[in-house]
UniProtKB/TrEMBL annotation, chain A:
Keywords: Membrane, Transmembrane, Transmembrane helix
Transmembrane segments: 34-52
Name of the protein this chain belongs to: Uncharacterized protein
From TrEMBL, chain B:
Chain intervals for the UniProt region annotation (Disordered): 383-452
UniProt lineage: Bacteria, Bacillati, Bacillota, Bacilli, Bacillales
Principal cellular location given in the protein's record: membrane
Keyword Transmembrane attached: yes
Gene Ontology CC annotations of this record: membrane
Subcellular location: Membrane
Protein name: Uncharacterized protein
Pfam annotation, one family: Spore_permease
Amino acid sequence: MPWERMLVLAFALGGVWLYDGMTLRRKMSKREKYVYGAIMVLSLYMGIDYAVNADWPDLFDIVGLLKPASDAIDKILRG
Amino acid sequence: MDIRKQTISSFQMSVLFFVFMTGSSIIFVPGPLIERAGNSAWVSLLLSGGTGFAILGMLLFLNRRFPSMTYIDISRKMLGSTITLLFGLLTMTYLFHMQAAIVVGVGQFMISSMLRETPMYVFTFLIFLISSLTARAGIEVMARMFMLIMVITAVSVMIVLTLALPDYHPSMLLPIMPKGIVPVFYGAYYTFGFPFVEIFLFGMLLPFTARKKRRLLPKHMLISLGVSTFLLCTVTLCSIMVFGAYAAENPYLLFSIARLVEFQEIIQRIESIIGMALILGSYMKTTITLFVLSLFMARLFRIKDSSVLVMPVALSGFLLGLVSYDSATQWFGIITTVHPLWTALVLFCPLLVVTLTAAIRQPSIQGTGPDTEPAQQGVAIENADGCTGQSPDAGDESPGDPESTGQSPDADDESMGNAGSASEINGVTGKKGSREQGSAAGGPKHSGSSAS
């Protein structure tokens, strides 16, 4: 159900922002903020993908490039 | 507590290593391994265990050459910033996947074995929540906590394997290699991908060993890996002795063995103990992976405090587990087929390149050794085994700036991150005062300290 997924996302994202907001407030350097922001953007992308069940490209789609070679090795070893 | 100043003893490091290697693999490895290698599964484990020892050997070699430097710092020094960044980004793809895979594995186990109607996110969210809070607390907290949990887990597994003795049929172990040597390599290929190549992660943790305990580090780590391999072989052999050829049909063999245990009609259905052991083992492994990944990213992007990244990394792992997991079939396909090649390319190969470069360039570039390290200072905290979390030299020598002494892998990244700088070689910042204090305290002046 969409509302269930959005609730999960709200809990997860909200929890991280709340916790880090309290513990890291004004303690992060510029570089730390950039890297933190980059990871959060990535998380937001995956979160929206999960919430709307869109099946956007993810890590496995990239790693899937190794599938033909992996399958070939698997076939050789399986005999 | 500032995690940058935390150190642990070599024994605690070996315990972390043991729980990391054994935590989830003891449940997940035997089933698919026996499916591939049959009765020679234990031979495959010994073969891939050999590669595990080789990987550990490389890490210990690098740690001996550069005791206060993490894998990323060493790579930056050996290969330069650009190649390190490229290798690091590739490695990160697997590390992100790994933390999600461990937790999704637990979720799958719980759904398939016990709580069939519960959504996956309930398990993954709770495990990531606890793991991230533990990782945020630092390596000292992790080492102390995991010592106790490891004992509980190991005792539980031993109890189950011992109580299952009446169900063992040693005749099922034969013949050992009915289809020749190829299935042995097939099984070794699988176990190379999981769990042995993951030893790589400890390249980021070895510098946290307290200086006084570094001498014993190789011995403790090698024994830990040996015990872990032995335990995996034992579980695999016991599984074959109980189920024979049908062991390949069952993904959670230790859990199934526990189901069969019946002792004097009093002790029955103790599989929940194995469920508990799996959750604890996976929680510990997830915590270590989360800590390492945060530290990896911090060193790669030259950030001082890696604890800042723990929560967003945990969040990304949680969401990755939700979006990438489409079905059990696709998941097992990735784990069993793609994993070995993926890990070989992004973990093993970069480590091999760095190690070979360090070995070839050995005469020209000296790292700090145990006799030449400058004074270090850490927070004096009693560890569980009586060793202080502080560098033992702080009490004897003039204290230096904790960040300048290079004790913590999160030390000043201007000194730790720049390849070829004099301060990076011995892990000390450009602060003259601390270097002079360190050498005045008794360590001989190191010729490499002025070389770049």
